[in-house]
Write the C-alpha cells for this entry.
Amino acid sequence: MNPIVQDGLALAAATRVETGLRNLWYPVTPSYAVRDTPLGITRLSENIVLWRDRAGTVRAVEDRCPHRGARLSLGWNLGERIACWYHGVEVDGEGKVADVPALESSQLVGRKCLRSYPVVEYGGAVFLWFGSMEHGQPRPFALPEEMTNDEYSGFLCMQNWKCNYRYAIDNVMDLMHGTYLHSNSHSMAQGDKKAEMVIRHTDCGLVFEKVGQRGVNFDWVEFGHTSSLWIRLSVPYRPQYGGGEFFIVGFVTPVDDGNCQVYFWRIRKSQGFERNVWRFLYRNRLEGLHWDVLEQDRVVIESLARHARSQENLYSHDLGLVRVRRVMEKLAREQVEAEQAAAVH
C-alpha cells in the first residue's frame, strides 16, 4: 500500500476510535428527557434532534435545517414533522423535506436532505443506530440477558463525564481499582489487595477475571461486542442487604472527543415479593451508596493527567483494558477500510 495512503488510513482509524465506533447501537438519552419539545443533543460528535410524534414514538434526524442550517431543535414539534424556527421549513422523521410553507411549491419537498437515525426505546433509554455507508440497515437490537430476561429487575442511571469515552471503558476493565478506590463501599470492602488475573474469550468478546476469587469484590468483567459495545459485571451484596450478586450492565456513549455519557443498568435477579423488597430497598437505601461509587470513579477519571494514556506504565493487572483497546482499534481500522472501499466502488 502507498505509504501516504497507509498514513491516511492510520489517522482516520485513530480518529474513529477516539470519536466513537460506528455500526453500533448507543444509548443517547434517558427516555424521560424526550418530551414534546424538540431535544438537541451531540453524540459521537454528531448534532441530532429528537422528538416524539403523536403516537409517542421517538424520531431522530440531523439537527440542521436543510434550508440555511439553523438548528431544528430550536423549532416546533408538529407530530410527524419538525418545523424550523428560522423559516418554517418542515422535515419528517426520515429526514425528508415535507413542506416549505413560504413557497407555493419547492423542489426541496420530498427530498431526503438529512440523515435519519433508527431508534429503539428500551429499559428507560433511547438507543440510536450509528451506521456507516456500507451498513445502511441496522443490525438487530440485542442486549445481555440481564436486561431482557423477566427474571431480572433493574434501574438505569446515567452520568455525564468530562473525559474521552475510552477512559470510562478503561475504568470498568480495571478490576483492581475496586479494592482501593471503593474500599469503603458496602459491596467492595472485602477481598485481597493482590491478585492474579486472566483473560477468557467468549463468543462475543472476553471476560477478564481474578484467579481464585469470585463473589468477594469486583472480581470479573465481561466486554461484549454484539450490535452494541457493552460491559457486564457483578459485585456481591453483604448479608444485611440480602446477599447474592448484584449485576451491572454498562454502555459508554461518546459525546465528542472530550466528553461522554455512562449508562449503567443496576440489576438484581429476583421475582415476586423478593423483587418488590429489592426495589424498595434499592430506592430507599442502596441507590445513594451506588451513586457514591460512581461519583468516585468520575472524580478520578476526570482528573487524570492530560493525555494520560500516552504516559502510562502498565502492568499485568491492566491486561484486560489493553486487550479491549486493541479490539476497538482493530474495529476502527476495519470500519475505515470498508468505508474507503465502498466509496471507491
